[in-house]
Amino acid sequence: MQALLTDIAAVVGSGNVLTGDDVTQRRVDWMSGASCHAGAIVRPGNTDELAAVMRLCHAARQPVVTHGGLTGLVHGGEAAPDELVISLERMNAIESVDPIGSTLTVQAGTPLQKVQEIAAEHDLLFALDLGARGSCTIGGNIATNAGGVRVIRYGMMRQQVLGLEAVLADGSVVSSLNRMLKNNAGYDLKQLFIGSEGTLGIVTRAVLRLHPRMSSERTALVACPDFAGVSGLLAHLGRELGGSLGTFEVMWRNHYALLTEESGRNTPPLPPHWPYYAIVESLGNDDAANTAQLSAALESALEAGLIEDAVLAQSDTQRQGIWNIREDIEGLIQHLAPLFTFDVSLPIPDMPGYAAELERAVQQRWPQGRIVVFGHLGDGNLHVSVSVGDDEPATRRTVERIVYEPLAELGGSVSAEHGIGLEKRDYLTLSRTPEELALMRTLKRALDPLNLLNRDKVLALEE
Amino acid sequence: MQALLTDIAAVVGSGNVLTGDDVTQRRVDWMSGASCHAGAIVRPGNTDELAAVMRLCHAARQPVVTHGGLTGLVHGGEAAPDELVISLERMNAIESVDPIGSTLTVQAGTPLQKVQEIAAEHDLLFALDLGARGSCTIGGNIATNAGGVRVIRYGMMRQQVLGLEAVLADGSVVSSLNRMLKNNAGYDLKQLFIGSEGTLGIVTRAVLRLHPRMSSERTALVACPDFAGVSGLLAHLGRELGGSLGTFEVMWRNHYALLTEESGRNTPPLPPHWPYYAIVESLGNDDAANTAQLSAALESALEAGLIEDAVLAQSDTQRQGIWNIREDIEGLIQHLAPLFTFDVSLPIPDMPGYAAELERAVQQRWPQGRIVVFGHLGDGNLHVSVSVGDDEPATRRTVERIVYEPLAELGGSVSAEHGIGLEKRDYLTLSRTPEELALMRTLKRALDPLNLLNRDKVLALEE
Question: Cβ(B170)–Cβ(B446) under 8 Å?
Answer without folding.
Answer: no
